[in-house]
Write a structure and sequence with these properties.
Layout (H helix, E strand, L loop, with lengths): L1 H10 L4 E5 L3 E2 L4 H16 L13 E6 L15 E2 L2 H18 L5 E6 L11 H12 L6 E6 L4 H16 L12 E7 L10
Parallel strand pairs: 1-3, 2-4, 3-5, 5-6, 6-7
Helix pairs in contact: 2-3, 3-4
């Protein structure tokens, strides 16, 4: 399935953003998990296993996870099964495995659903993730997040707040120094006047 999607994207001239985001559980063996991720990246970039030889220009971004913070009515995230501390360790194994294959590939995550609290401050788990990445010297080229609902100005305020938070960690990204942002899912509520 992956090979068909990649081949189709290449044939149509698209750049690839790979998102490793289904229902994810913390692997019981992070070392083995890292080796699996390495093989996947070798398949995509080195032709391993009758794969591809995609370049950094063709694979624009490799994102890990989707909304691990989402909590649907106290049932937890439909995308991450486990504690967020285990999530941080799993991201570390993923990111290191990607960079072990090609240090020039851009890796990021965690695609938080709700990165800010009601006051507009960065949530604690965002800071814990960034502290974990920084403290364990884990590469983070892009910090990804989502934004749903609200006036257009709120999207801009969220980006500004996250940019300021990322500026506190100016050496997390081997490619850019300070990680870039990736807002890869968003929508705005109709009916708001621009500037409101």
């Amino acid at each position: 399935r992956l090979d068909r999607a990649v081949k189709g994207a290449i044939e149509h001239g698209f750049k690839i953003q790979l998102s490793a985001a289904d229902v994810i559980e913390a692997p019981s063996d992070l070392e083995k998990y890292g080796k699996i991720v390495q093989r996947l990246m070798m398949h995509l970039t080195r032709g391993w296993g009758d794969g591809f030889k995609l370049t950094r220009e063709e694979i624009r971004l490799i994102l890990y996870a989707n909304e691990p913070d989402l909590d649907l009515g106290g049932r937890g995230s439909p995308f991450w099964r486990g504690k967020l501390t285990d999530f941080n360790k799993t991201y570390a194994a993923f990111a290191r495995a990607v960079k072990a294959v090609d240090k020039n590939l851009a890796v990021g995550g965690p695609c938080y659903a709700v990165p800010l609290d009601d006051r507009g401050d960065v949530r604690g788990y965002v800071r814990e993730f960034l502290d974990s990445v920084q403290g364990n010297k884990v590469p983070l080229d892009y910090f990804s997040w989502h934004h749903y609902d609200g006036p257009p100005a709120e999207l801009g305020r969220t980006a500004k707040t996250i940019r300021a938070e990322l500026a506190k960690s100016p050496a997390l990204s081997p490619l850019y120094g300070t990680p870039r942002q990736a807002n890869d899912e968003w929508n705005l509520t109709l009916g708001y006047r621009l500037g409101s």
